[in-house]
Amino acid sequence: MVHKTVSERFFFFNNIIVELWVVFEGLQLAWAHGYEYLAVQIDSSDAFQLLSPSSPESPIPIVRSIANILHRAWFVEFSLVPREANFAADYMAKFVPHQDSLLTIFEVPPTSLTGIRHRDVCGSLNSP
């Protein structure tokens, strides 16, 4: 039996909360831009389990907030994507554009993402 220390449990829980906040912020942004159909890919199995299905009665406040935003007039589908197949999202999360904004919306993905997207789609064995 593996026993986790209090700090390990706290770190684990905080990571899930951060993942859920990112989902919540993304949902708010998508709603504000008028999207009616949305596919949300999550690479955290723990966050995915909390949102499948999300419940307005969850003991976790951010899960309740996500559940409430999902009840709007739109279709949102969550899917679990392995981290190994999600390098493009990881790259974009670390991509720093040359501006002072906290948020960047790309109409077209950066050209530096092309090879990474190919790797995600084809798998690491076929990567360039």
Automatic annotation (TrEMBL):
Residues 15-95 form the RNase H type-1 domain. It comes from the Eukaryota. This is RNase H type-1 domain-containing protein. It comes from Hibiscus sabdariffa (roselle). CDD domains: RNase_H_like. Coiled coil: none annotated. Pfam families: RVT_3. Gene3D superfamilies: Ribonuclease H-like superfamily/Ribonuclease H.
